[in-house]
Design brief:
The complex is a heterodimer of chains A (788) and B (178).
Chain A: H1 2-40, H2 44-48, H3 57-71, H4 73-77, E1 80-81, E2 90-91, H5 92-95, H6 99-113, H7 120-147, H8 149-161, H9 163-167, H10 176-197, H11 200-216, H12 220-236, H13 242-261, H14 268-271, H15 276-297, H16 300-330, H17 339-345, H18 349-353, H19 355-359, H20 368-374, H21 378-389, H22 395-413, H23 418-452, H24 456-472, H25 480-488, H26 494-507, H27 509-515, H28 523-551, E3 559-563, E4 566-570, H29 572-583, E5 589-591, H30 597-604, E6 607-608, H31 617-628, H32 631-640, E7 645-649, H33 660-674, H34 697-701, H35 703-709, H36 713-716, E8 720-721, E9 726-727, E10 738-743, E11 749-754, H37 764-780
Parallel strand pairs in A: 5-6, 5-7
Antiparallel strand pairs in A: 1-2, 3-4, 7-11, 8-9, 10-11
Helix pairs in contact in A: 1-7, 1-8, 3-6, 3-30, 6-7, 7-8, 7-10, 7-23, 8-23, 10-11, 10-13, 11-13, 12-15, 12-22, 13-15, 21-23, 22-23, 23-24, 23-28, 24-27, 29-30, 31-32, 31-33
Chain B: H1 4-11, H2 16-39, H3 59-84, H4 88-114, H5 119-143, H6 155-177
The chains are: A mainly alpha (788), B mainly alpha (178).
């Protein structure tokens, strides 16, 4: 009897191994398909428009990558850019997060050394889809650590398509988040892996991945605050283990050092409040580790004595140290936090103190519909995922829940941070869906087995199958369910089933201890459930593809609109920049609002006064004041900055809503924040912002109005502004200090040149003596204008 | 017959607190000796009969110190005994950790004397010491035979991981030292 038994056992073993191998191949193939899906869903903009870099910030990254590819890494590291923030310049090496640039540069260099001659622009455009495929694979690894392979595949599929991530990583969106989200998920994966295995090798890899994250994005502070929070949570809930020490302590030391290596962070890694949480938890962890160690050495009575001694001494020292720390921190006005981080903790901070941060539309809180737009179905799968994480609770699943809770809070503060919520949402929804599928398919398997079994052998097989299914996951259930199930099966004789169950129960008591807890639903219900879940997934996929195609694929440098006579393409921006690069001198300075700075330097290759980096509020306020002042004053300001050309964006002819007239109030606010002679109520009529006949004279005389609406009445005779929806106030006027040099095809970008100062002042010699007296009295009077 | 110490107490009451602090064990044993002489039994610590000597409250805690000190002595002895039982390789690692932390403290003191001007050098020095200490503690955790979680991790693998992590740490330190 032994040989057939062993051969069947070997065959069973071989069958199991074959099944395992098949499962592995299937898993790898699915992952490959997920990567292809993540890559291809982001290609809509390339198909609909062209392979072009989108928006504003990516143009700066593109320019930096061009410089890197042309001049090499040493030049890039020490680059001082004098073509922006004229006359201040900008230290690019020390103020840019180099991760994205170095990644794309390395990719370009690698491909070119393999003789695949892709241009830098192509590599930049396609970096984001490549790294989103990597991010899905990282999500698979992370979820596998928490809940197993099935949940991992589900989460990876969901992340490949989630609209919130697509919005920041379409082909062409060459921005920091493209690689940063991958680095975030990968760092979390390595942390959880170290926590699960306790291996120092993974701890080293974790620190290196954290270094990559610090290089890539300012959001790395989320990692260095979340991981200490999780360690604290583990300690407080009694889950301290030596693996926790190995996971956290080397990360703090190595991570701080590596973060200090990146020039943007520098000494902030040890001096700003964003990093203090990690140091604090580092100390707490050491104290706890010491306590556990001594507890292991001593008897319980002696341990109590030690505790009383230590607590009385330790508390005194602790209070002293905390008092010193609080004194140090309280001495700085922002309590050591940077402006952006403080605006996350106190959402009203930015609107009170830093209008530039408050003015960015991405920094506003999100509305409820934006949650359903961005994470769709996942919004109500998340609670199911949270519950599933608690059954059973492990270190990894507690980390997921903590990550989700903190990400959900921050996404409620700033719409831009929905991006950080997306991976957490995908992971938890993947876990929830995978659990649901587990239960439903297990039910169907059990029911089918019960349906077709006529012999004890078959029931033995079914018990073996169900016990193997039970090892995959367990759910708490009631015993009544099993008896209910036997009642609802129509074809089985209930008494026969129950007898078989009892037989099986008697023969394999150990396996049944687990089996009793399994939830097995009736077959129709489970079949219906699987069908409905698949339909839900279908809705999600349809929404994601629609969002990717229609909502998030606009390059915003090229606009299209459909009308009855076909598709109109508005390529005005590139037209204007091309005109600038062909018709002006290399050293000419161009002034515009800071939104267009990056595009101007990258595409037109001209020096700008302010750009999207917005690091110098006073410089931006200077430009804002110039735009809000009358022509002569504005000319003086621009002349003092050596400006030759002024660029404004005007959408009134075609109905482009994000033009400079709509942004004008921010110019007034920012300018008024630094130069008090600009007062916002001067530009508002009864608290309303208008540019029609009811507008205030200050508004109708300011430079922005004049530059935008110069000769506008010639287009339709009445000067009807399609964006504001009314006719403009002042229609016929001439410019005295500026001359128009270029207006694009749809009047969207208008470029003006500063008129040079007159050589001869005719008729002014007589007035000079009397004029000087009047001008001095005027200057001493109401005007605190520094340029008069 | 009053001893010299009692005479000092009576003549110089201002010295009372200081002598009490310094001679507390001796003082209490005097009290105990007197009580034993008077009552013939041991009282083991503070008693209501000591009230004349306990006019200022709070000194009863100091009188209880001998139990605390004897307990502390017992504690330290048992700690020492339990620690002496650890294997030699773990003790070597502990010595290395103590050496690294001591080096870090010396560096902090040096920084306090000469100022922190090349701050990156100071930071890299401190963090390299603390870093090797932390990594050595991790190695000790993994090599310790009493640790159930790591019983199937071969100590050579643990040491190799330790070396790798130290390599990365010191590469970064060299870069940051300036």
């Amino acid at each position: 009897m032994a040989e057939p038994g062993s051969s069947t056992a070997a065959a069973g073993d071989g069958g199991g191994r074959l099944r395992n191998a098949f499962g592995g191949v299937l898993c790898a193939f699915t992952l490959l398909l997920i990567g292809v899906l993540a890559f291809s869903i982001r290609l809509f903009s390339v198909i609909k428009y062209e392979s072009v870099i989108h928006e504003f910030d990516p143009y700066f990254n593109f320019r930096v990558t061009q410089f890197l590819s042309k001049n090499g890494i040493y030049e890039f590291w020490n680059w001082f850019d004098d073509r922006t923030w004229y006359p201040l310049g900008r230290v690019i090496g020390g103020t840019v997060y180099p991760g994205l640039t170095l990644t794309a540069g390395t990719l370009w260099w690698l491909l070119n050394s393999l003789n695949i001659p892709l241009s830098v622009e192509t590599v930049c455009v396609f970096t984001a889809p490549i790294f989103s495929a990597n991010a899905s694979w990282a999500t698979y690894l992370l979820t596998k650590e928490a809940k197993g392979t099935g949940a991992g595949l589900m989460a990876a599929t969901i992340l490949a398509m989630v609209p919130s991530y697509i919005s920041r990583s379409v082909a062409g969106s060459y921005d920091n988040e493209a690689v940063a989200i991958f680095a975030l998920i990968f760092t979390f994966y390595l942390y959880v892996k170290t926590l699960n295995t306790g291996s120092l090798f993974y701890a080293t890899l974790n620190a290196l991945s954290y270094f990559y994250m610090v290089c890539s994005w300012g959001g790395y502070t989320f990692i260095i605050n979340l991981i200490p929070m999780h360690v604290l949570l583990c300690i407080v809930t009694g889950r301290y283990s030596s693996r926790l020490y190995i996971a956290f302590a080397p990360l703090v030391i190595l991570g701080t050092l590596l973060a200090a290596l990146v020039p943007v962070v520098g000494f902030n890694a040890v001096m700003t409040s964003e990093h203090f949480a990690s140091f604090l938890v580092f100390i707490i962890l050491h104290v706890v580790a010491l306590v556990y160690y001594i507890k292991g050495l001593l008897t319980p009575r002696l341990f109590k004595v030690a505790m009383t001694l230590v607590i009385s001494v330790g508390l005194a020292v602790c209070f002293a140290v905390v008092a010193i720390l609080i004194a140090l921190v309280a001495s700085s006005p922002t309590k050591g936090w940077s402006g952006r981080s403080l605006s996350l903790l106190d959402p009203t901070y930015a609107s009170k103190y830093i209008p530039i941060i408050a003015s960015v539309s991405e920094h506003q809180p999100p509305t409820w519909p934006s949650y359903f737009m961005d994470i769709n179905v996942l919004a109500f799968l998340i609670p199911a995922g949270i519950i599933s994480c608690f059954l059973p609770l492990s270190d990894a699943s507690s980390f997921m829940v903590l990550y989700l809770v903190t990400a959900a809070y921050f996404s409620g503060v700033m719409v831009r941070l929905m991006l950080v919520l997306a991976p957490a949402a995908c992971i938890l929804s993947g876990i929830a869906l995978s659990e649901a599928f587990n239960v439903l398919t297990r039910s169907i398997k059990c029911q089918l087995a019960k349906l077709f079994d006529d012999s004890p052998a078959a029931s033995g097989d079914s018990s073996a199958e169900s016990s193997s299914a039970s090892t995959a996951s367990t759910n708490s259930a009631k015993n009544e369910n099993r008896s209910e199930k036997t009642k609802t099966i129509p074809k089985e004789k209930p008494s026969k089933n129950r007898k078989k169950e009892r037989e099986v129960a008697e023969s394999v008591p150990v396996k049944h201890k687990k089996e009793k807890k399994l939830l097995v639903l009736p077959m129709e219900a489970s079949a219906m459930g699987i069908l409905l879940l698949i339909v839900l997934g279908g809705f999600y996929v349809v929404h994601c593809v629609w969002a990717a195609a229609e909502a998030y694929s606009a390059p915003s440098i090229v606009l299209t609109s459909r009308s009855h006579d076909g598709l109109h393409v508005f390529d005005d921006f590139r037209e204007a920049y091309a005109w600038l690069s062909h018709n002006t001198d290399v050293d000419d300075k161009v002034a515009s609002w800071w939104d267009y700075g990056y595009q101007t330097t990258a595409m037109a290759n001209r020096t700008v006064i302010v750009d999207n980096n917005t690091w110098n509020n006073t410089h931006i306020a200077t430009v804002g004041t110039a735009m809000s002042s009358p022509e002569k004053v504005a000319w003086e300001i621009f002349n003092s900055l050596d400006v030759k050309y002024v660029l404004v964006v005007f959408g009134g002819l075609v109905g482009y809503p994000s033009d400079d007239i709509n942004k004008f109030l921010w110019m007034v606010r920012i300018g008024g924040g630094v130069f008090p002679h600009i007062k916002e109520p001067d530009y508002l009529r009864d608290g309303n912002y208008r540019v029609d006949a009811q507008a205030t004279p200050t508004m109708l005389n300011c430079l922005m109005y004049k530059l935008c609406y110069y000769r506008f009445v010639e287009t339709d005779g009445k000067g009807f502004d399609r964006v504001r929806g009314y006719e403009i106030g002042k229609k016929h006027f001439k410019l005295t200090h500026f001359e128009e040099v270029f207006t694009t095809h749809h009047w969207m970008v208008r470029i003006y040149k500063l008129k040079p100062q007159k050589n001869r002042v005719r008729g002014k010699l007589k007035k000079l003596k009397s004029g000087s007296k009047t001008s001095s009295t005027i200057a001493a009077g109401r005007n605190k204008n520094p340029w008069q | 017959m009053p001893s010299t110490i009692d005479r000092i107490y009576l003549k110089l009451p201002s010295l009372y607190p200081f002598t009490l602090l310094h001679l507390a064990p001796l003082r209490t044993s005097l009290v105990e000796r007197r009580r034993i002489e008077e009552t013939g039994r041991d009282s083991g610590g503070g008693d209501i009969g000591d009230l004349p000597f306990l006019l200022i409250s709070g000194y009863d805690k100091i009188l209880r110190m001998p139990r605390a000190t004897s307990d502390a002595k017992l504690l330290i002895q048992s700690l020492g005994k339990a620690y002496a039982a650890t294997p030699t390789n773990l003790k070597i690692i502990d010595l290395y950790v103590v050496f690294a932390v001591a080096t870090a403290l010396i560096q902090v003191v040096y920084m306090g004397i000469v100022g922190s001007f090349p701050f990156n050098s100071f930071l890299s020095g401190i963090l390299s010491c603390i870093g090797t200490a932390v990594l050595a503690v991790c190695l000790r955790i993994q090599v310790n035979k009493d640790n159930k979680e790591f019983k199937d991790l071969p100590p050579e693998r643990a040491f190799a991981d330790f070396v790798l992590c130290n390599l990365v740490l010191h590469l970064v330190i060299m870069n940051f030292l300036g």
